[in-house]
Predict the structure.
Amino acid sequence: MCEWCREQGYCTLYGTAGHRADKDALDRPNNTRAQAVAGDVYRTLQEVCPQLTAENGGATGRYCCDDRQIHDLFTKVALLVSEYPFASTCSENVRHAGAAAAGGA
């Protein structure tokens, strides 16, 4: 099996590794076990990706994103919603795409 192949309960990407030219963070290839997310960080993830948290065990679930990635996702979704406040379908699609990116284990 390849070094970065995903196994059940493990992440293909976890954490960040530097930045792109536009200053966005680059996700770090990291075949690590999905991690618990707690406290305010979990509440932020739940707000941004309610379907992901519901389908993945809620507060006791394990996720493929660290605190910084959750904060970055929240910031980007908030910016999109503020720019396109009447695009509720777009907002929901972005939330689902964010959930897919956060990838429950």
In short: The two ends are 18 Å apart (CA to CA). Helices lie at 39-48, 50-55, 67-83, 88-102.
